[in-house]
Design a protein that fits this description.
Length: 256
């Protein structure tokens, strides 16, 4: 029988206590009660039992050969088998289930293209996430957090999670905090520099203001000419114009 390193990594390791208990049981019975499951001679289920057998020649054991069309199918069986048999913490359950993601994504995509997808699912991605959560027996939120942890956490953090020394929420929060601190500070857009106000600007503003006022008075007098047709009203308009001159004189005093 052969050990495939990729397949072996899919199996959550036993604790020392669990491994010792398994070995004691096998040695006491002088046999391995559960058959080792293989595919093309590669062990899919029974890596720990096979190790004990190798260390203790003469132990009786049986094997069952499975038939799969691809490595992906064999891996999917291994993962589902582990999830169904072992009492694993949520982190390990979610981590294992995430190994199914590429296979499930491919299947979901095929169903979408063939028009056989569940109409209640908005996308292939949503369907896959639901299947992963169901397979692991955890929430969608836990699947998302563990996926982030697997991508970002250090080996030390992952080991703490496996041992139950750190919670998923705590590890996820720490990763998000690090990401927040690493986000680049947005650079404020530099406001265009205003041109310097000069003496020429002052003269131009005074001239423009005068021109605008004269135009306004002239246009108003032409437009409202019928309102001051009689001499009395015309005189009052002239007085208003003279009043404007008086105010201009007041402005002139500022410059003297």
């Amino acid at each position: 029988m052969k050990i495939d390193p990729e397949f072996e990594l899919l199996i959550p390791p036993l604790t020392d206590e669990e491994f010792n208990q398994l070995r004691d049981n096998i040695l006491e019975d002088c046999e391995v009660r559960e058959p080792l499951v293989t595919w093309n001679g590669i062990i899919l289920d029974g890596h720990n039992r096979w190790k004990i057998i190798q260390e203790n020649p003469g132990i009786h054991y049986k094997t069952i050969e499975m038939i799969f069309l691809s490595r992906n199918e064999a891996k999917a069986w291994m993962i589902r088998n582990q999830l169904g048999r072992r009492n694993l913490p949520n982190y390990e359950r979610a981590r294992l289930a995430l190994q199914l993601k590429p296979l499930l994504a491919e299947e979901a995509s095929k169903r979408m293209k063939a028009g056989k997808a569940d109409p209640t699912k908005k996308s292939a991605e949503g369907e896959v996430r639901e299947q992963l959560a169901k397979a692991a027996g955890v929430s969608h939120d836990t699947i998302s957090k563990v996926e982030k942890i697997e991508a970002k956490a250090t080996p030390e953090v992952k080991e703490q999670l496996r041992k139950g020394e750190l919670s998923i929420n705590k590890a996820y929060s720490e990763i998000k905090e690090v990401e927040r601190k690493e986000e680049p500070i947005p650079i404020a857009e530099e406001k265009p520099k205003q041109p310097e106000y000069t003496f020429e600007n002052l003269l131009q503003e005074i001239s423009a203001s005068c021109d605008n006022y004269v135009k306004f008075v002239r246009d108003t007098l032409v437009k409202r000419s019928t309102m001051y047709a009689d001499s009395d009203k015309k005189q009052r308009v002239l007085e208003a114009i003279v009043n404007v001159r008086t105010r201009i004189e007041e402005i002139e005093k500022i410059l003297k």
